[in-house]
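Structure tokens please, single chain.
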Amino acid sequence: MSDIVEKWGRPVAERGFAQVPNYLLLLNQFLDDEHRLSPVELLVLIQLVGTWWRKGDKPFPSMATLARRCGSSERQIQRAVNHLVAVGLVAKEKRRAGRGLISSNAYDLTPLAEVLEEAAKAYPNDYPRKIDPDATRRITARLGKGAAPPAPVPGEGEAGAEGQPTRRRPRRRLAIHQA
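Here you go.
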């Protein structure tokens, strides 16, 4: 822990760290173009992995929590989760609280672990210099069949009605929310 404290400072180190496999961070590198994940989908996966403490337990952050952590709308998170389920990286399970009230979904990340294991077998070197097309096909084949790629989000660089690119939102400065 002393290295972590030295690197990040005591207040950050005391909050804890999540275990995120490097193969998850590199996942898009191992998938063919039509199956690559959007930035929001990848960020949702990272957030889900960050809340997965034990193999037998399933993380269950709410859509609102994921949206807040990803800096996105709940609707975009719903689309991302639905696509991750459709391609077979995540299994979603409905949960019920006391008296049958609907609670946040639980997420089974076992399919993701299996895809990452396949990537690790195909690319034992953490940073392969050359991506093998056959290995990419094998990894992509583990994803759900017939799942359509996610629909583009309006305003993210596609051409507008007159063929002109749509305007992007101006970048905001990072501000830390005080609770």
